[in-house]
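Troubleshooting log. The previous structure file for this entry was overwritten by mistake, so regenerating from the original sequence record. Sequence copied from the archived sheet and checked twice against the printout by T.R.
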Amino acid sequence: MSTRRSDEEDDRDAQAPDAAGGDATTQPISVVIACHDAAAYVADAVRSALAQVPPPAEVVVCDDASTDDTAAVLASFGSRIRVIRLARNGGEATAKNTAIRAATSPFVAVLDADDDWSPGRLAAVQEVLRRDPGLDLVTTDALLVHEGRVLGRWYGPHYPFEVDDQRRGILERNFVFGHVVLRRSAFLEVGGFDESLRHATDWDCWIRMVHAGHRIGWVDEPLARYRLHEQSLSSDRDAMARGIVALLERNLAALDLTPREREAAEAAVTEQRRTVDRTRLKQALLTPSAAAARTAAWAVIGNARQPPRSRALALAACLLPGLVGRRHRQREATTWLGPGDVRLPRTQAPRRTQVLLTLPDRPWPADGGKRMRCANTLQALAGTPGVDLDVAVLFAGAALEDPLPPGVTVRRCVQVDAPPRRRLPGVLAVAARAVPWQIAVTRWGLARRALAPLGATTYDVVWFGSSDHALSLRRTLRARRTVVDMDDVETSKLRGFLALQADAPADGALVRWQRRVELPLWRGVEARVRALADALVVCSDLDRTRIGGTRTHVVPNTYPVVPQDLSAPRQGATVLVVGTYHYPPNVDAAVHAARRVLPRLREVVPDAELRLVGRGGGELLTDVAGLPGVEVVGDVEDVAPHLRDARVVLVPVRYGGGTRIKVLEAFAHGVPVVTTSLGCEGLGVEAGVHALVADDADGLAAACARVLRDEALAARLSVAARRLHAEHFRPELATQAVAEVLRAVLPGPAPVQDARSAAPPAV
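Regenerated output below.
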């Protein structure tokens, strides 16, 4: 939005308010506020304006293209204020000019967005204007406030308001506190604030107004609060001094000055140049360059009019630039020099916790057990207050444009994928590193190169999403603390596999021999991971007992609560098996269900059908696809319709690690579950109450038949299972558990609401 106006328009606007009739000095005053990214302060400013008695004629706010929540804050005031939003950031002068031109009263009060007024300020100014109607600007004294603490007053013996010779005084220093009430026509007559200036725009305008014949009055009471903070324009002393030199030189050339006035202006320019030299010395001392410090120091030493203390600092900088620079940097790290040469403590923002999370699978779409756990951990860490999160998704398929769940934002996301090594390099890696095949064939060198840029960050916590990540990448990354998620205890999984009879294409003789060889290798991996980790994470109390140690924590697998109408009867006799069939235990479970459980079930429920839903598997499930009553559905975008159609969810898992999210998924959807003991271990399932449990094909088939034939039993199982899920396996409980792990490895991380104290949703 352009604020450039023609002279004719300015003249018309300057005359319009006074044409309304009446005494301009007694009419209500308009208040204008210019703001940019001032969401933290502007509400206080607006409220202080609206609270004035008598009230202002209007409050006009010019939002200078803010990118924070300023617009929402202003919108909360509704029709009590008028908001003008600029399409592009034009700067303070542009925004103030826009607001003042939009005002409709003869007198306009200018309020900075990060300051506020005391009650009665406008009334006090109006009283001054009533007593002296010839005044064109009026200000008041103000309190200087830093982080809520009052430091003093704006005016004082060292910095008085100029009463006697304002033409000369305004050239020497800006004696006008910037919260002025100005006569709008006089302001527009001199062209308003100069939009080409970034600093001291108000001083430049007051110089032009005073030298155009306008007078300034004041109230000797501190009726405003002026916030001192590092982000304010006036806190940049070097830029401010250089800007003042430029505007004074321009006014020296443009104004018709008396000799005394010219002398005052030239003295002010000289003093500001000395300020520039001092600030350049201080800036040079902030760098490690001794040559730059000495060059800047000589400019101060060579000027006899510089303060003795500044010349002493400069001399020391010439002789001992390293020592003086180090001392100066230490002081500047904790304090800053504010307006009026007041040294103030820097605002120490709470240090944010730096976390890197590595994930063994994509967190989105969360269409499998491993992906759901990845998504839960990611969402918990990303939502923890005070955490800056980086994420690495490793060997989970081709990189996606947006691999994160909706609404989750992280600082950096690295995706790495590559096919496994060929057989011979894999065999050599097994021998050289004494690691299992799964670790040996992964291209960790590619991952290390991709993660190398993250090595520049020293993370407070690196949270490895699996044991192989921790073992292979720990030396690439710098971490104060290390957390390793061992949701699959591989040794337990292998022992369970080797105890089974071989009856599936995924567990032939060669595979079984390989697993026997790998069992001691996995024991070694787990021992090394336990030694390097500051905390281990498992998904159940059972696994915590197996691993042992005080550094082992439970972050449960979870599933969202699903609104469900359990009154509608389910039709048909569909038995559903859900799984990701890249995972060998799920292939074994699916083949076992198709070859051994379903035939026995169909002997008593002839119309029973087995539906296998989930991605992967390919040729491993080809042999069962043609069996009577078996339907291999494969990958689906949404499993919910299949869960709604199912009468039973069958979880015939015979080996594996961790806890089965597919069980929680069925519980949440209100589908009765039939499972093995292993399928429900770690979930607190009570057989016969939350699910029917059996460990052989005959028992699983009989349990499925009971549920298919007994609707009352199915309903009881559904209600009890949904209650168990709602009480113990909601996602917010995983969020709380992740926060507890952070608290355990780092002292005092940001608190997270204790989700366990909240009542679970009704089921």
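The chain has four domains: 7-227, 260-345, 353-554, 574-729. Archived copy saved in two places this time.
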